[in-house]
């Protein structure tokens, strides 16, 4: 009989510590991408498996001040230890979003309760004379022009 490796339903501090120590694992890369979204937006992405969500909860704390990169919203802040261990300053999504925010773009949040917030993309917009320029920064740092109709 073949046994498959399955992640436990919930992670604990020991799991988080082990993942942060080995940068070559898939769990490290997965956690880094999801933590980059939290770092950029100050919110948790939706529709995550409970294991990753529990690790993110362990590695964050509530902030009374907005912590999103654009400084307008977000209340979930990653701990300095997690930010450093995941090298989030050099994550492609973080660096590209920071560049756009410095150029005047703002992070867009859908206010609908049923809206998805995938960890793999951040919606940005900037008001301009000819209207609003919309773009998406993806987890790999690539840029998509415009938003889907639902956004």
Q: Could you characterize the architecture of this molecule?
A:
The chain is of the alpha+beta class and 151 residues long. It has one domain. The protein is 34% helix and 18% strand. The chain has 5 helices and 6 strands, in the order H-H-H-E-E-H-H-E-E-E-E. It has helices at 13-21, 26-41, 50-58, 80-85, 92-102, and strands spanning 60-62, 76-78, 106-107, 121-128, 131-138, 143-145. The strands form 2 sheets. The chain has a 4-stranded antiparallel sheet. Strands 1-2 form a two-stranded antiparallel ribbon. Strand 4 and strand 5 form a beta hairpin. Helix 2 runs parallel beside helix 5 (92-102). The radius of gyration is 16 Å and the shape is globular. The relative contact order is 0.15.
Domain count: the total is: 1
Give the strand order, joined by hyphens, for the main sheet: 3-4-5-6
Termini separation comes to 47 Å
Helicity, as a percent range? 25-40%
How much β-strand is present in the residues? 15-25%
Strand count, sense and barrel status of the largest sheet are: 4 strands, antiparallel
- Uncertain parts: none
């Amino acid at each position: 009989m073949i046994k498959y490796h399955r992640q436990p339903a919930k992670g604990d501090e020991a799991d988080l510590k082990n993942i942060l120590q080995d940068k070559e694992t898939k769990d490290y890369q997965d956690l880094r991408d999801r933590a980059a979204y939290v770092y950029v937006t100050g919110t948790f992405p939706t529709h995550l498996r409970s294991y990753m969500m529990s690790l993110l909860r362990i590695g964050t704390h509530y902030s009374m001040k907005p912590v999103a990169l654009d400084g307008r919203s977000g209340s979930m802040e990653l701990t300095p230890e997690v930010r450093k261990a995941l090298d989030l300053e050099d994550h492609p999504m973080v660096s590209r979003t920071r560049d756009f925010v410095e150029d005047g773009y703002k992070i867009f949040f859908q206010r609908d309760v049923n809206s998805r917030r995938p960890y793999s993309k951040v919606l940005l917009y900037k008001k301009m004379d000819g209207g609003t320029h919309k773009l998406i920064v993806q987890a790999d740092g690539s840029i998509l022009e415009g938003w889907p109709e639902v956004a």
